[in-house]
Amino acid sequence: MANISKKVSWSGRGDDRGERTPLLNGAEDGKYNRHVLHFVFQSLDYDNSENQLFLEEERRMSHMGFRCLETRRWVICGLIGFLTGLIACLIDIAVEKLAGYKYSAVKQNIEKFTEFGGLSISLILWAVLNSAFVMVGAIAVAFFEPIAAGSGIPQIKCYLNGVKIPRVVRLKTLAIKVFGVICSVAGGLAVGKEGPMIHSGAVVAAGVSQGRSTSLKKDFKIFEYFRRDTEKRDFVSAGAAAGVSAAFGAPVGGVLFSLEEGASFWNQMLTWRIFFASMISTFTLNFFLSIYHGKPGELSSPGLINFGRFDSDYIPFESFIFFSFHFPGGVLGALFNVINYWLTIFRIRYIHRPCLQVMEAMLVAAVTATISFAMIYFSNDCQPLGQDNTEEYSLQLFCADGEYNSMATAFFNTPERSVRSLFHNPPGSYNPLTLGVFTLAYFVLAVWTYGLTVSAGVFIPSLLIGAAWGRLFGILLSTITSSQSIWADPGKYALIGAAAQLGGIVRMTLSLTVILVEATGSVTYGFPIMLVLMTAKIVGDYFIEGLYDVHIKLQSVPFLHWEAPPTSHWLTAREVMSSPVTCFNRVEKVGRIVDVLSNTSTNHNGFPVVILSFLQPGKICGLILRSQLIVLLKHKVFVERASSRLSHRKLQLKDFRDAYPRFPPIQSIHVSQDERECMMDLTEFMNPTPYTVPQETSLPRVFKLFRALGLRHLVVVDNENRVVGLVTRKDLARYHLGKDGLEELHLAQT
Amino acid sequence: MANISKKVSWSGRGDDRGERTPLLNGAEDGKYNRHVLHFVFQSLDYDNSENQLFLEEERRMSHMGFRCLETRRWVICGLIGFLTGLIACLIDIAVEKLAGYKYSAVKQNIEKFTEFGGLSISLILWAVLNSAFVMVGAIAVAFFEPIAAGSGIPQIKCYLNGVKIPRVVRLKTLAIKVFGVICSVAGGLAVGKEGPMIHSGAVVAAGVSQGRSTSLKKDFKIFEYFRRDTEKRDFVSAGAAAGVSAAFGAPVGGVLFSLEEGASFWNQMLTWRIFFASMISTFTLNFFLSIYHGKPGELSSPGLINFGRFDSDYIPFESFIFFSFHFPGGVLGALFNVINYWLTIFRIRYIHRPCLQVMEAMLVAAVTATISFAMIYFSNDCQPLGQDNTEEYSLQLFCADGEYNSMATAFFNTPERSVRSLFHNPPGSYNPLTLGVFTLAYFVLAVWTYGLTVSAGVFIPSLLIGAAWGRLFGILLSTITSSQSIWADPGKYALIGAAAQLGGIVRMTLSLTVILVEATGSVTYGFPIMLVLMTAKIVGDYFIEGLYDVHIKLQSVPFLHWEAPPTSHWLTAREVMSSPVTCFNRVEKVGRIVDVLSNTSTNHNGFPVVILSFLQPGKICGLILRSQLIVLLKHKVFVERASSRLSHRKLQLKDFRDAYPRFPPIQSIHVSQDERECMMDLTEFMNPTPYTVPQETSLPRVFKLFRALGLRHLVVVDNENRVVGLVTRKDLARYHLGKDGLEELHLAQT
């Protein structure tokens, strides 16, 4: 039944290997092995180290003190929401301005040359403009901050899951991300500006909550209490939610996104704060955009994207048609992911130099412009210009006066507007052939674009593809049945198609449903949307995982899912744990600590502290982290110096917080030969009550404990309370359910 | 700082005391002490007992087997949603019919006597009709199933929290609940039919998921795998969500309600299933109601209550006015709770006999009718009958022809319709005096009504009170500023007032916001609604807890909140645990087991199993539950019989599942004197890897472990792994934050 592939033997296992280059966008050696988990990723620690210092501080704090802390948390969440809203506003206005200039220029040029002939000059102008925008964006990303590439959602998923992706929440990343997304959307790529908002919100949160910026070397000396992984993670959840909320005008969807991706332990107060941040974010964005659009106070169209309200109803029979959409959605979604998967492997192997990456991005931009142009040129799909026509850049091209080219509306627009047109334009706005060709072309472009070294999201392209074939289906249906009254509105088929396609690609059921419901403002469509998302997910899962999971797996991140694989009851802590474990004594020689920390072949991050005993593993009495030991060594907290330290101040939690989160490497700390002979008393600094499990504990039980409490290290003990092993994230992430039952991934040494 | 009141000494502490009469609606002895936690409440066990039997079963199961289980879970959730929707439909139609007959009869009578005089006869008719309905409902509740009284939300909160309230999820309870709520709403009480839907959904879930009904003595032999607390709880969450969803047409709100109240460990798959159940429930209700109303397929007005869409916008300046609503909302809400608190204590002391309870309910019904009548009679608030007037029972009374009495619309209607009128009737429909008097009268009636021995909810009355003063405020505002254009719509003030009032009374921020947003279908108002709910909660919390928490506390339920009180870092497991602990040996004498289980002064429910040792506490090697021991004794699984048992079949998990959840008391199991001398081997049946903590673990840490994993027993060990104590729910629930810091509740002996 449970088919366990053979274990690889490895020496010197450790939690991870210090801060290294991020791999999320290209393995260093250009090789890729999909059965490997990388050691480069550190884990975050969501379990407070309740050592004496911590307990003393907590006990000193009065009830009032805790109230103040709570208030500060609310203030921070408000700030996060406000700043995220502002950033969304900035992106929106910048994109609108830049795209506006571009389309005006190209439109004038096309109109000029339509009469004289020589439209190839227009094409060149368009392609050059696009490539230029994309080049600037790609250079920023490829040369200055590669982690800012893509939508950022996989990275934030990993962060919330407890994996530390280096540099992912830095200010510089935020700046490049925002700049990059403006360039790529203005550059006409098949991308959306919504995904990056989630990443931006998370960075804002990580920055604001720490009250300092290490990039800017500025410490405001506020919010020092929150300088640890537990608190920071909570704020990052709020930031991600605020990002979703700003992007889609979906505050509840934002909260659910954060919870679906991140929170392992649901906490009511935390959820309220996340919700608060989301609300503030939408509100801020709306408020400033309404001012920008000259209608201050008109708050009824929230979010960067608004799909408009669907007022038309559907009849129950249509539910079955809607339901059938899950199949194309799931299959096309899986196809998207499979192609993108192979493309990404190709990129990892051959396109890992920054200049190549920039060139690929420019190539895609030029090709996008060319394809768009060709399709506009060859289509003669003329539609009368209506009174209520809201297309800003309607092209007449070869159409008669008073008409416009409807293919041009689909391509000659930001993707957001195209989605909206597909949802809401009256029946007859598009002819079926136009839509068919558009679907195909855009699918190819979107697959190719995702994974480029530009900062961009995949939500909107997915929606656009789905809306196109959904609407096509609706039109065909009304042609076949020719009962115009009932099937009058192909827009609702576009909506369901968009949901099916998005579900097939990204597979986040619950939050997506809510996001789509909130973005369309129609609770009525909630049921078919949910049904189609869920079944599209099932169909897609049959072939391949969701796009984000594909990318996470491609980077060999030790990602923990919600539950242990169902057939893993065969395994116990004994088989899963790494052993032997490097332990320290309660009072340990400095030399040994330095040696252990410097040992690059093991590079452990957590060490059980044991009571000295002879010839056998010692009884556990605590757990200490590498980062804590580093701070202790840096401040030379040695027993021998205790007397002289009387004049000095005692080491405080503040010293640990100041070093957080970039603890210096052991190599940078100088320990003299004399000092090596000193002793260090760990009693005060270790966590005296780490969680432990007996060796017989089944894997699902270990997994549940680990996941529910967000642990980084779990000590395995025998029935005498002696340390026999240590379970870390990688030991659990190794097991996953393959086609033939339980499979085990290898642990890479690099 | 942390001010701990002195501990009471008590002997014989145990987890609880077997199944007893439920106390949620009246203490037995008529006395009430608010500093006591009762022993009558058993805990639920959300931690699987991973004994050998369980592991063997799990290991036997193939990947396909787990898939089937998962499919079954989805099917069950679909069924739960469907049945809950049907029940909601039944309630809605029954109430509408009955109320329709009643109002028609009274209306005709009033119209008859308006001309001749002698309206007192109409009053008597009205009062008698009301009292008759309420009497029938109250008799059903008081004599047949007292647990069906009230909204049921506190009980479901407790269940999801892990407290077993006897008889709360039985079929009989459901029947009485549904019958009771129809009677009380038709009887014109100031109640809503929404709260009971949540309870109904939970009962449906508990029944369907177990594949049998113990009330009907019918076992369908399906879903046997789900016969344990962990699985059952998950389904009950889904049922509660489906109930909310049906009541308010708010599927997302339902999911959030379940999560806010129940789930400690967020699980993605579970959440999707809950959402699925919610969606099915709303859809079913809509579908059948649309058929009933003769418009099959018109699904646009979901839920039992629909507040109608708010299309009018608000200007940012109004946000500040909306925001100011939190103060009256919080204060009035707290006042409501305080009065109801004292009233409930009065009821516990003096009105604890069923016939008294029925009489009180009838009295309230008669008084409600009288007050309503008086207010209709004395008001001369005539409004012209508009074209689009939707009032079904508009009373002309003393108004001119073509006019109707607007006070009558507020009282002569089900509360749901009244709320809708307050939200949406055009400006000028009500005069300020009418609204003021109405607010006051309805407030008094609602306070008096909640806690009666009838099945009824408090959501709608709260909304109605809030909507009334909110609209009043809006009207006054427009009078003062006399700028009709901007303040034209008092309906939006009614909405925000309703939110503030509801927030002040029940205090569930997140799910309430979403419920209100979904029920009104306006995302735009989400921000002010959230703001007002949150601040109303803060204001209200200053005075007293939320209504449901007040009632939970009044029944001395050991309810665990989300986190340990912040100032509890002073306490460690050593102070919190109960000790000494009754332990069993791995192979134990039957006589001792029977004696321990029969000891009514301790009545423990979980027993650590230890390895035999001399003179000192033994090393822990497992944990066994009372229920498991009972099954073992019943099947006489003794070592001495092992040889003869070769012919018998081996004890299987099925035997434990068949006995679940009503394990027989120890008294019903006959053990002969010979058998008392036999030995029982617990190895196969005990949980070999119970969670343990060292004695130094701080209370917040113990609390987090306990809450995150949904434990019932947590073993405290010393550093030799010897059992020194046991932490149960009551040990943690004892500590709470009072006015003067940390307080400790006493544990009652009964």
Automatic annotation (TrEMBL), chains A, B:
Q: Which domain of life is it from?
A: Eukaryota
* The CBS domain, residue ranges: 686-744
Key words of the record: CBS domain, Chloride, Ion transport, Membrane, Repeat, Transmembrane, Transmembrane helix, Transport
Source species, please?
A: Sinocyclocheilus anshuiensis
What InterPro entries does the entry give?
CBS_dom, CBS_dom_sf, CIC-7, Cl-channel/antiporter, Cl-channel_core, ClC
Q: Which SUPFAM superfamilies match?
A: CBS-domain pair (SSF54631), Clc chloride channel (SSF81340)
Q: Which GO terms describe its molecular function?
A: chloride channel activity; chloride:proton antiporter activity
Name of the molecule in the record: Chloride channel protein
Give me the Gene Ontology terms describing cellular component.
lysosomal membrane
Q: Which gene encodes it?
A: LOC107690253
Family to which this protein belongs: Belongs to the chloride channel (TC 2.A.49) family.
Give any Pfam family that matches. Voltage_CLC
Topology versus the membrane, per the UniProt entry? Multi-pass membrane protein
Q: Where in the cell is it found?
A: Membrane
- Listed PROSITE patterns: CBS (PS51371)
TM helices/strands, residue ranges: 74-95, 123-144, 174-192, 235-258, 270-292, 320-343, 355-378, 433-452, 458-481, 493-517, 523-544
Region Disordered: list its residue ranges: 1-25
